[in-house]
Design goal:
CATH architecture: 2-Layer Sandwich
Order of helices and strands: EEEHEEHEE
Radius of gyration: 17 Å
CATH class: Alpha Beta
CATH superfamily: Holliday junction resolvase RusA
CATH topology: 60s Ribosomal Protein L30, Chain: A
Helix content: 10-25%
Length: 150
């Protein structure tokens, strides 16, 4: 049986920030940046609410993420497309995906982010007049791997 979860996290997507390393009496410790911590906490709340307390997925899963950032003013000209546009800027799609996977794990949707065997990450600008958001689709995979011949 295939299990599928779809959700939208409203607000500006945030990539996984590099931890700052600090020496303490107990040893060395990495501290995640506040912006990343705040976004992850918000995303965990949204994802957990949507998951509604179901048991976490434990088998192989596919994750599709569309990180849609606010469109800058310079891209509101008449000649610019109305719909979504590619966004080849920071934060990178892979760092945003890392933040999402951490949130999915903390929200109890995934048992561990290691079970993600197929991930697709899009980094986009919003439509003209559109709002920033992150669109997420998580689906279980119950078919065996089928190699594709070159």
């Amino acid at each position: 049986m295939i299990i599928r979860y779809e959700g939208i996290i409203l607000g500006e997507p945030v990539g996984k920030g590099r931890p700052r390393v600090v020496r303490t009496a107990a040893g060395v410790r990495g501290i995640t940046p506040k912006k990343t911590r705040d976004w992850t906490a918000y995303a965990v709340g949204v994802l957990a609410w949507g998951w509604k307390g179901a048991p976490p997925l434990t088998g192989p899963v596919k994750v599709v993420m569309r990180a849609i950032k606010a469109r800058p003013k310079r891209l509101h000209r008449k000649r610019d497309p109305e719909g979504l546009m590619w966004r080849p800027r920071k934060p990178d799609a892979d760092n945003t995906l890392k933040s999402l996977l951490d949130s999915l794990t903390k929200a109890g949707v995934l048992q561990d982010d290691a079970i993600v065997v197929h991930a697709v990450a899009y980094s986009l600008y919003a439509e003209k007049g559109g709002k920033p958001r992150m669109e997420v689709v998580v689906s279980s995979i119950d078919t065996p791997y089928m190699p594709v011949s070159p």
